[in-house]
Structures are given as C-alpha cells and as structure tokens.
Design goal:
alpha/beta, Rossmann fold, Hypothetical Protein Tm841, Chain: A,domain 3, 2 domains, 4-stranded parallel sheet, 13 strands, 24% strand
C-alpha cells in the first residue's frame, strides 16, 4: 500500500488538494523577520505578503532540513505505507539534497519501505497540474507503476508561459543577470519565460510591453491547447486585472477552455514578484526556449 503526497510549490489550491485527499508538504518562506509555511492558501495572508513586497520588503525562501523531511515521512513508514512523492522541479532548489539525506536515514531504519520521488520538472501549477493528474489516477485505482508511466508522458505536455512585472526580482533570485535585468527594465522588456525539459527557467520570447506579452500568452494557449479534458490555469501575483484580461483573451477564442483563476502564493511570489501573470495548460509538447537568451 502507498500514499501519494505533493508539495506546496505546486500551488494546487488547498480545496482541490483536500477534495483529492492529497497531502501537501508546506514550504517555507520569510519576510519581515518571520518564517511562514505556505499551506496552499488555506491560512495565507496574501494581502500582507504582497503589500510588504511592494513596500520594499525582500522575501526569502529556504529549503526544508533533513529532520523536517524525516518528521513528514516517518509516520507513513511506521504505519507500513510506501510513499509516492510528486515534487516540484529538482533543478530549482537544494531542498532535495536534504530530502535525500532524510531518505537515507529512513531506509536504514525501515528497510522494507520505500519513497519514490517523481520530478515534475516544473513549478507553480506547471507542477500542480501534474500533481492533480496523479491524484486523479490514484483515486481511480491506478497503481504507482501506472501513475509513474502516465506522468512521464504527461510531464512533457505541460506548457508554462509567464511574464514578470519587475525583472529585478528574478535577478535577486539568481534567475537573471544584473545587466539583463537593468537593460530589460530600461527598455520595458517583458521576456516571456517558460520551464525547459530539465526543469529550469528559460526565456522563450522577448516582448516589449505588458499588454503585448499578455496577448502573446493568450495566442499560445489558443493555438496550442489540445482540448478540454484538462484545466487551463491562469495565475497572477497580486495583479488580478491583468490575470482576468488574459483569461478573457483566451476564452474569447477558446470558449471551450476550462479556465481556473488563481493567485500565486508567497513562495513562488518571492522569486517572481508582484505583477507576474502566467498560464499553464496541456499541449502537445513543452514550449521551446530561445537558443540564446
């Protein structure tokens, strides 16, 4: 017998996770001298977080330590359960090095138990849509092996597009060079970003102006959305009017799209900053990044 778990960096809203009986590992972030754990929005003060960031506060994210992972996973092993963990991109965090340490400790103590970790090679709802898919399969009786096989194919079909309002947030997080951030800010450049097949952040297009960037994202969904079986997640980091505008652009041409609007949580928001708008959906393949950024 196994249990399926995920993490809060997948951003699947707490009501949906509860509906699917899916346990999510809360992920830490800090601002204003306090440490918080993102709970998929259940008790999260989004207003306080984004107001603080807009006021100049620099939030930080951090890795869970090995002891925290042991505390999360050991109760399952004690009950004789294996674990299938569908995680956000391993290329984006050192937290998985700590997970490996915890698993080595637990394997020594529980040699008959196992924890299988599936790397979605994505983040935010690019990971969350895969977590949702895995939970649906699990609830319909699929085995771990069947879930893993389907996820490997599904992973390469998840398309992520997003633009940020202030490039300096990406620069502070090490996602963009200082020169590129400075030049892009001066030029009002809005690079459209995506997640490549390795699970890393990449530029896929360079666009001048936010409105043009929103239009371009909508065009990608209109052209690439494969059908209505899966949701189209339109997300924003404290920019609801722009998120609504993007959703409307999509629905005007694809009224069949099942659009879900959602706020970006503080962990992801700490890196992308207020004003970020993005879309996640299922296509034939992942977006192709620029060869040279």
């Amino acid at each position: 017998m196994s249990v399926l778990i995920c993490d809060a960096d997948g951003e699947l809203w707490y009501t949906r996770a509860e509906e699917l009986n899916l346990y999510s590992i809360a992920m830490p972030y800090s601002y204003g001298g306090n440490v918080y754990y993102y709970d998929l929005g259940k008790n999260t003060d989004f207003r306080a977080f984004y107001d603080a960031v807009r006021g100049g506060e620099i939030p930080k994210t951090m890795a869970l330590n090995p002891d925290e992972y042991v505390a999360i996973l050991e109760p399952y092993f004690e009950r004789g359960e294996d674990v299938l963990y569908v995680s956000f991109s391993h290329a984006m965090s050192g937290t998985f090095d700590h997970l490996d340490i915890a698993l080595n400790e637990l394997r020594a103590k529980y040699p008959d138990r196992k924890c299988t970790v599936f790397d979605t090679k994505s983040i935010c709802l690019g990971a969350g849509i895969q977590m949702e898919y895995a939970a649906e399969l699990k609830n319909n009786g699929a085995s771990d092996e069947e879930i893993l096989a389907k996820l490997k194919e599904f992973r390469d079909r998840v398309a992520v597009y997003f633009v940020v309002d202030d490039l300096m947030h990406l620069k502070r997080g090490g996602r963009l060079s200082g020169i590129a951030a400075f030049a892009g800010t001066l030029l009002n450049l809005k690079p459209m970003l995506t997640i490549d097949e390795r699970g890393s952040l990449k530029v896929c297009e360079k666009i001048t102006g936010k409105r043009k960037a929103l239009r371009k994202m909508a065009d990608h969904v209109i052209a690439e959305l494969t059908g209505t079986e899966y949701k189209v997640y339109v997300v924003d980091a404290d920019s609801p009017a722009e998120g609504d505008a993007l959703a409307e652009m999509i629905s005007d041409s694809r009224p069949d799209a099942k659009i879900v609007r959602q706020t970006v949580g503080p962990v992801i928001g700490a890196h992308c900053g207020p004003g970020t708008v993005g879309v996640i959906f299922v296509a034939d393949s992942r977006p192709i990044p620029l060869a040279v950024e």
